[in-house]
Amino acid sequence: MLIRTKPDLTENDVTPPALYRQRRRFIQSGFALAAGALVPGLDAAAATLEVKKFVGLGTSRYSTDEEMTDIEAITNYNNFYEFGLDKDSPAKLAQEMKTRPWQIVVDGECTKPMTLDIEDVLADFAMEERIYRLRCVEAWSMVVPWVGFPLSALLKKVEPTMNAKYVEFHTLHDPDQMPGQRRGLFGYVLDWPYTEGLRIDEAMNPLTILSTGLYGEVLPNQNGAPIRLVVPWKYGFKSIKSIVTIKLVEKQPVNTWQQQAPNEYGFYANVNPQVDHPRWSQARERRIGEMLRRDTLPFNGYAEQVASLYNGMDPKQLY
Amino acid sequence: MVLPGTNIDLFGEIRIRTIKSLLFVLLCLPAAWMLFELLAGRLVEPVEELTHGSGEWALRILLATLAITPLRKLTGWHKLIRLRRMLGLFAFAYMVMHFSVYLVLDQYFYWPEIVADLTERTYIIAGFTCLVLCLPLAATSTDGMMRRLGGRNWKRLHRLVYPAAIAAVLHFIWLVKADLVEPAIYGAILVLLLGWRVRESGQRRTHKPKTRSTPIMGQG
């Protein structure tokens, strides 16, 4: 955690300007009911507590009203192979990852390529809460209250060209910080950096967001800080974490898991109870926190919003 | 030290009994620890953790069981054989726990999926094969059953432990997503343990044993 490890910094040093700005916006906007606690410069302890919080978050009609998964589970049960293979490793090993400064290069087939600082991202895009179901390819699921903004808002800024048919994403590649990226007994666990991709219309779909937080606070490192993708109708591995590159490309990218095992993981990875993983059933899932499995829904319950993207395609090809 | 007038090796006897008692307690610990974590609410995904925990311990103990004979030969301390049955039964107990977690907590007797698992999914077929192969071994583990079957038959039957162990390792190898290190370590241990046996039997065949031709019971 940024703050607690450096207690002697002044508040200016530790509070991301974006949050200041957001806070100002929030207070100015006249909702300042409980603003007293949010005004910077009260006492250090209060500042420490609230500095990670987003204020004035918008809500979204895409949010589900299902019961949210416990934050303890969301932050301690993670697949983030850069920080180890066990579900509880990322929570332990990701704490030291530096998420400031952090830059995101957005380039490729676009007229205005740019390098964004995470602070600017936080300042320039209106963050809203999106409560989404998350379905992992391993047949477990959660309900996560993400904080984020539509990916389309960012892509529009760089003005994709006609050649931009796909979007390719990369996670940070830094074996010094990410022990899982180091060479192991049998070489590398995956071909780093972790790579993901979306078709441009999937990327522009309003459900697709870049997330910078969850449960109203800055994204914990183990959940893909400082910025990650969330594509709720696809298996979780599509929702790439700790993004440093967003590239508009003409050819369909080869995502990491597809490259690792093409017969098991495809490019599309749409949640589909009808198409089993070669080694296990995808018909049902276990919601973390519940004992018994529940039925998995086509497109993870987002068929209404996204099924039309795949008209005329063979669902068997969309695993 | 051999007691006068008998052939009882007193120190050896004390040693093996102590080791056996300690081992008994040790082998209970993983299950006790899992139960404690479960009851204390410390498991984020109890089903997964209980499944993996019981499965890994079953495999470890199964390999330990297979290590007894080589160890006995290498150290010359034949009393080690007295740990083998307990180890084998513990391995079986963890397998049963593993399967019960799958059947009850994971699938909750949802037969369509269980049947699909047992017919279509290679790693589950391998795991179930291991369990099925071990059933007659556990059932014939008593002194009475050993006597009833006779040493030779009993020994022949209990060779099922080899395919069972191979199935167990395959079960693990086939289920992992990317990281083969852990199952490969178990696989390597199994290859060593089985390789040693192959070499031994080869030697026995080429250099005819000088004294007895029927192996003593419990060998293998």
Helix content of chain A: 10-25%
Strand tally of chain B: 0
Q: The biggest beta sheet of chain A, please? A: 7 strands, mixed
CATH class of the largest domain in chain A: Alpha Beta
Strand content of chain A: 15-25%
What's the main sheet of chain B like?
Answer: none
Distance between the termini of chain B: 28 Å
Offer a quick outline of the entry.
The complex is a heterodimer of chains A (319) and B (220). Chain A has 319 residues and is an alpha+beta fold.
What's the layout of helices and strands?
The complex is a heterodimer of chains A (319) and B (220).
Chain A: H1 11-14, H2 17-28, H3 44-50, H4 71-76, H5 89-93, E1 103-108, E2 114-117, H6 118-124, E3 128-135, E4 140-150, H7 151-158, E5 166-171, E6 195-199, H8 200-204, E7 209-214, E8 217-218, E9 228-230, E10 243-249, H9 256-260, E11 284-287, E12 294-295, H10 303-306
Parallel strand pairs in A: 1-10, 4-11
Antiparallel strand pairs in A: 1-2, 3-4, 4-7, 5-6, 5-10, 7-8, 7-9, 11-12
Helix pairs in contact in A: 2-6
Chain B: H1 10-39, H2 46-75, H3 84-106, H4 111-120, H5 122-139, H6 143-149, H7 151-158, H8 161-175, H9 181-206
Key attributes of the depicted protein:
A: 319 residues; alpha+beta; Sulfite Oxidase, Chain A, domain 2; 2 domains; 7-stranded mixed beta sheet; 5-stranded mixed beta sheet; 10 helices; 12 strands; B: 220 residues; mainly alpha; globular
Question: Could you walk me through the main structural features you see in this protein, from its secondary elements to its overall organization?
Answer:
- The complex is a heterodimer of chains A (319) and B (220).
- Chain A is an alpha+beta fold and 319 residues long.
- Chain A contains ten helices and twelve strands.
- In chain A, strands 3, 4, 7, 8, 9, 11 and 12 form a seven-stranded mixed beta sheet that branches. A five-stranded mixed beta sheet of chain A has the order 2-1-10-5-6.
- The longest helix of chain A has 12 residues, at 17-28.
- The model of chain A is unreliable at 1-10 and 23-50 (pLDDT under 50).
- Chain B is an all-alpha fold and 220 residues long.
- The longest helix of chain B is centred in the N-terminal third of the chain and has 30 residues, at 10-39.
- The two termini of chain B are 28 Å apart.
- The A-B interface holds A 72-73, 76-77, 81, 85, 87-88, 138, 140, 184-186, 189-190, 260-261, 279-281, 283-284, 286, 288, 291-293 and B 44-48, 105-108, 110, 113, 116-117, 121-123, 174-175, 177-181, 184.
